[in-house]
Design goal:
The chain is built from 21 helices and two strands. It is mainly α. It has a two-stranded antiparallel sheet. Helix 9 runs antiparallel to helix 10. It is globular, with a radius of gyration of 25 Å.
Length: about 750
């Protein structure tokens, strides 16, 4: 095991600790009382529906994965334009991403009834059961992510045969390709789950609340079980797969940049020792982040009768303490490794952490009904649903300003800190600056164990409220579950903002990794030197990022770059349009079915008849499976076709356009949707007329519009941004071959 320092084994050890604590939290949750027979029955219906959907989705995904793996095998073993490990790395990335979603959803579907029962005892008890069940998802994601990375590092370190500092470059770029497997699985999980959940939610709200005037999660509503199933397949399985991919992508992209920075024309020539340290650093920061996230999880608690700000403070205590501890630990890790400019690189990590906290706080301000923006949307209901929608769109657009500026400052500061504030655009500075940006993304995601717990908590609390309503647990319990649910809406919006912010930093690091993959593509083809436009020649092994940018003329005067930018920007809107319309079509079928049942099954509304819940579950399942394929495959094909038609410069334009447009659009959609949802919750708490009033009906319409914004199209965009980058990286060898 040459070049593997002993400290590396902290990484697999931390992943095992995360999985052990996930199992302990799961076991503790299972020991809680599930409540009455009625509560158990409802939880069973949701569990069966969720697992049936997941099995059906995985059947479709397995076929797609086998086809893609066969294609990658042809590129590797037939055309020899790709590393022979890529097909296997791709499959393991998808497998581990799918496992993360499966374990998280299995936990969530067991936790909802137990949370509802715990809420009968106290608000704090309900919060702890829901939050620690969400922590299972957070810890499974980071545990499986680091385990996958560790295993691939050990395997490739043993088998890869390359001279000197080239070995780590080959290893890290090969490991990076398993990110495409994770991205592909994440996109199917997010799009399919998002279509499922919002078709059910829209159908349940429009016909149940607006037309029939019955409460949310009322057992008389035929779509209510499908709605509760959807919360799990979209917001638990989908989010888990999404952030698994972000987490691994940020670590691997940074490791690849670290390997590239210290090889050949890098910062210190072929400095093998410094190169190994640069590769180890993001893995070790992530490993320590796991351990400190577990400490944060135990700090989350609240008191009876807590209001929304106090509940948010309870969750904030855990995440903020973890973030501060990770910041301190990063300085110690980088000092112990003695990385070049370790103080500057440490501040790059802190930059990412601070950016994540700011984005979370801004998202909370714009989406929580404790603050004026969401209250203004609720007040707009005085003049009907149209003004609610206008106000929500305006608020969402305004809410993009601070997150975008935060990421801009984070990018600049992370770059400058890593270069020692040397602004000269040299190869050495660019390599270190990009490494700083990558490690800022690692910093932002280092506390994912607890930040994802706050996100996965949301659908558990939502399902607990549904279970309490359907089981008739009484007004006091429903009041507590409503408080937990409203908190969950805000934490979900915060989690989405966090995921989008980390996606922006990761995608930027992946741009640099794409150039490194182009370099390896030339080596696969046997090209040792390239001729530039002015007739000069340069050896491929000595070329850096700036050399390749010059060789491919990647600048704003190149029409191929501009064409790519426009296509990338268009992809963000096209993808959103396709997924929004998919939700609309599936929701129409659900609305028609719920209306049919109210009309044809006698006694539903009086409580004497039993709705056909299974039929609504089947409609959502079929709709999601049918509708998720085209947008997902389009996202995979776009970089491939762009590379074949416009070459490397076109692909760079595509990735930049997709990143710029997709990032801003995703924040807008997530925050608009979250604000509409909580404007409705604000009125349901008794403000502006309360439940059943005209104000309430107007905000239900706004919430219905916001559902696909925040739970389908918006969250899928950050996967789209990274998936296009990952596909470009995996297909770099083919692009080079076609354009050579």
């Amino acid at each position: 095991m040459e070049n593997t320092p002993t400290i590396f084994y902290l990484v697999p050890a931390a992943s095992v600790v995360a999985l052990i604590f996930a199992w302990l939290f799961y076991r503790d949750m299972k020991r809680q009382n599930e409540g009455t027979e009625r509560m158990k029955e409802i939880a069973h219906h949701v569990r069966v529906g969720a697992m049936a959907y997941l099995r059906q989705q995985y059947k479709v995904v397995v076929i797609v994965f086998l086809v893609l793996a066969a294609f990658f095998a042809f590129l590797a073993y037939g055309l020899h334009v790709q590393n022979e490990w890529v097909p296997f790395a791709f499959l393991t990335g998808g497998l581990f991403s799918g496992l993360a979603g499966y374990f998280g959803m299995k936990t969530a579907t067991h936790a909802s009834a137990r949370t509802a029962h715990a809420a009968q005892q106290s608000l704090d008890k309900g919060l702890k059961v829901a939050f620690r069940s969400g922590a299972v998802m957070g810890l499974v994601v980071v545990g499986l992510g680091l385990l996958d990375i560790s295993l691939w590092y050990i395997i490739l370190n043993y088998f890869v045969d390359a001279p000197g500092s080239e070995k780590l470059v080959v290893m890290t770029t090969t490991m990076l390709t398993f990110g495409m497997g994770a991205s592909t699985q994440a996109l199917f999980a997010r799009v399919g789950g998002g279509i499922y959940t919002k078709a059910a939610d829209v159908g349940a709200d429009l016909v149940g609340k607006v037309e029939a005037g019955i409460p949310e999660d009322d057992p008389r509503n035929p779509a209510t079980i499908a709605d509760n199933v959807g919360d799990n397949v979209g917001d638990v399985a989908g989010m888990g797969a999404d952030l698994y991919e972000s987490y691994c992508g940020s670590i691997l992209a940074t490791a690849a940049l670290g390997a590239a920075a210290f090889v050949g024309t890098g910062v210190a020539g072929a400095d093998l020792e410094m190169q190994t340290k640069a590769v180890m650093a993001p893995m070790l920061i992530a490993a320590v982040g796991i351990l400190l996230s577990i400490i944060g999880i135990f700090l989350v608690r609240t008191k009876e009768g807590a209001n929304m700000k106090q509940l948010l403070s309870a969750l904030g205590r855990g995440t903020n303490v973890s973030s501060i501890l990770v910041a301190c630990a990063s300085f110690l890790i980088l000092w112990a490794l003695d990385i070049q400019n370790w103080i500057g690189v440490s501040f790059s990590v802190v930059t990412g952490l601070v950016a994540g906290v700011i984005i979370g706080q801004v998202t909370e301000y714009y989406t929580s009904h404790s603050y004026k923006p969401t209250q203004r949307i609720a007040k707009a209901a005085e003049t009907g649903p149209a003004t609610v929608i206008i106000s929500g769109i305006g608020t969402g657009m305004i809410s993009t300003a601070i997150p975008v500026l935060t990421i801009v400052v984070a990018i600049v500061m992370a770059y400058l800190c890593a270069t020692g504030f040397d602004v000269a655009l040299t190869e050495a500075n660019l390599s270190m600056g990009l490494y700083g940006i990558g490690i800022a993304a690692v910093g932002m995601l280092s506390t994912l164990g607890i930040t994802l717990a706050t996100d996965a908590y949301g659908p558990i609390a939502d399902n607990a409220g549904g279970n309490a309503e359907m089981s008739g647990l009484g007004a006091e319990v429903r009041k507590r579950t409503d408080a937990l649910d409203a908190l969950g809406n805000t934490t979900a919006a915060t989690g989405k903002g966090f995921a989008i912010g980390s996606a922006a930093l990761t995608a930027l690091a992946l741009l640099a990794s794409y150039i490194e993959e182009i370099k390896i593509g030339f080596k696969h083809l046997g090209e040792t030197a390239l001729t530039f436009a002015d007739g000069t020649q340069k050896a491929v092994s000595e070329m850096g990022i700036l050399d390749f940018m010059e060789y491919y003329q990647i600048n704003l005067m190149n029409p191929k770059v501009l064409a790519g930018v426009f296509i990338g920007s268009m992809m963000a809107f096209l993808f959103c349009g396709l997924t929004m319309n998919a939700v609309g079509r599936a929701a129409q079928k659900m609305v028609e079915e719920v209306r049919r049942q109210f009309r044809e099954i006698k006694g539903i509304l009086t409580g004497e008849g039993t709705p056909d819940y299974a039929r609504c579950v089947a409609i959502s399942t079929r709709g999601a499976q049918r509708e998720m394929l085209f947008p997902s495959i389009l996202a995979i094909l776009a970089p491939v076709v762009t590379g074949l038609v416009f070459g490397v410069s076109g692909v760079m334009g595509l990735l930049v356009g997709g990143l710029g447009a997709g990032f801003v659009l995703a924040i807008f959609m997530a925050n608009s949707g979250g604000a509409w949802d909580n404007a409705k919750k604000y009125i349901e708490e008794g403000n502006l007329g309360g439940k059943g009033s005209d104000h309430h009906k107007a905000t239900v319409v706004g919430d219905t519009v916001g559902d696909p914004f925040k739970d389908t199209s918006g969250p899928s965009l950050n996967i789209l941004i990274k998936l296009m980058s990952m596909v470009a990286i995996v297909m770099a060898g083919l692009t080079v071959m076609v354009w050579s």
